[in-house]
Design brief:
The structure is a homotetramer. By secondary structure, the first copy, chain A, is an alpha/beta fold. Chain A contains four helices and ten strands; from the N terminus they run βββαβαβαβαββββ. Helix content of chain A is 29%, strand content 26%. A six-stranded mixed beta sheet of chain A has the order 4-1-5-6-7-8, sandwiched between helices. Chain A is globular. The model of chain A has no long low-confidence stretch (mean pLDDT 93). Chains A and D meet through loops of A and loops of D.
Chain lengths: 170, 170, 170, 170
């Protein structure tokens, strides 16, 4: 009865860590495993797929294509796929999946964070929790889950002013 | 487009706080508002209904009936209802709702915690996050959301050994 | 130039952990090592001496004598000794050291907590930090360091109303 | 019997906060009051003096002179002075005090952090705790308190490799 969920990590703010010497936050190591260890996950078996660790502003068209292809392929062999992604270009990868396969074999849910997990005021754990739950409850399709909201692609955009995702024209 | 969600608090481990003089954890004040303030809730308006603040082991049949009636009634005027409840007798209140109305007008999702929010290793925030998301995604019915799982009543029981909820005979 | 500090643990609120099944906080395992790992300790080498793990209300006269003897003996071979102790009977052990040796060979600093480390609002890390620093700065003698205060024995008592230590008659 | 301590804030890593839009940590608002509220400070009355909020790499000679003069003057009317400062140029301000007054009227203790308070792995609270305690225990002079160490000026330098302060030639 355990559901197999694939969890693709690509980097983004959620995974940024602090360097004492330079004093900046950047994508060096994955903190996803630490986050997963702090959650209680019953009824799912999480299959970790560390694909890349990039600020999404630095992703190339090839990166977006690779993310979309990997997510679509894993959706065929899993009950669902969660993709952790930088929010700046998250919608680009989301739309790429829709272009590639239309409706995937199982739900693909993107998530990310506005404030890195390393910060005490992070939204990372909330968003990861939501993505891991939403992927079990929604119909096959492509979504973003964040800030207590699940939005379906296409038509999802980042709203810089409200600092979250919205439906275009919504 | 904002969904109106009712949030009924009844007490339980999730809300227990520490008393320095006696050195014990008990239900005195509600910490739900502090928890809500630490989450980013877009697209929902939460209507707080503080009903009681009890360890569920001390709930009377009248308490369970009051919780069930309140949840069923609020389900008629809201897009969904979340009930924060002690885990020991959570299933009693859940089954009482099913006996009372069968399928409520909108989803009713119970949640709680095995470790109080006051503890740094709490599961309270994870479970509250899950309940607030699940209530938006599931069909009308009565559920428990906790530990990355959503289970539908009837037939839900607390598994003391695994320290979580399971489906009876599951 | 590294100072060798002995750290005796005896239990108390500071080390209490939470049991999910019983729902109570008690002294089962030592969390001191986790606390030490979260501090940056330069210039000192900490020698851990786990002596007992008791709520100090349950300490016998033999327990207090053992704590006093162990602290006094370690003071002879270290630059200082820190004793983590339940606050209810901390002053009993402190006065026992003074009775035993008057002024020890190096400073002996007791500390504890009003709220266990497991609580997010704990004072445990503050108090441990203070004890580890005070033991390097004060003259040989017996002290309690807690809540940004260092008080010298004899004449130290726990003030239940103010929830901290004070000098008797002070 | 309450000791009056002046607390001068000048900025630095310890006070850096995160901006969601730019994704960088910078000195915008003071988080010192939040830190103070999380500590239990008995026996001292803290007099907050917010002097500036700068990354110390951007301090001018006039800034260092102002910090030194303010600290020396406040030392005359208080039992001690704590200065929160960026670590990169902390030693410049410390030596400036020594040049200005030699030995101040009461202890002046500098502190800072290698990782901002906003980070869950911060050393800010430890260092602030240590400075507030050390200022009560040391003889009049100029010091840095950080990482469980108290070092006296002159001759204090930041050791980039070890990421802490050391005595030159030490």
């Amino acid at each position: 009865m355990t559901k197999r969920i694939a969890l693709i990590s690509t980097g983004g703010t959620i995974e940024k860590t602090y360097d004492e010497l330079s004093g900046v936050l950047s994508n060096q190591v994955s903190v996803l495993d630490v986050m997963l260890a702090s959650l209680e996950l019953r009824g799912v078996a999480v299959h970790r797929v560390p694909l890349m660790n990039k600020d999404s502003l630095e992703m190339s068209p090839e990166d977006h294509a690779l993310i979309a292809q990997t997510a679509a392929r894993l959706a065929e062999s899993h009950a669902g796929v969660v993709v952790v992604h930088g929010t700046d270009r998250l919608a680009v990868s989301g739309h790429r999946v829709v272009e590639l396969v239309g409706t995937p074999a199982s739900p693909i849910v993107f998530t990310g964070a506005m404030r890195p997990w390393e910060l005490r005021s992070t939204d990372a754990l909330q968003n990861l929790t939501e993505a891991l739950l939403a992927v079990q409850l929604v119909a096959p399709g492509v979504y973003v889950a964040m800030h207590n909201q699940v939005l379906r692609f296409p038509g999802v955009v980042k709203d810089l002013e409200r600092r979250t995702f919205v439906k275009a024209g919504g």
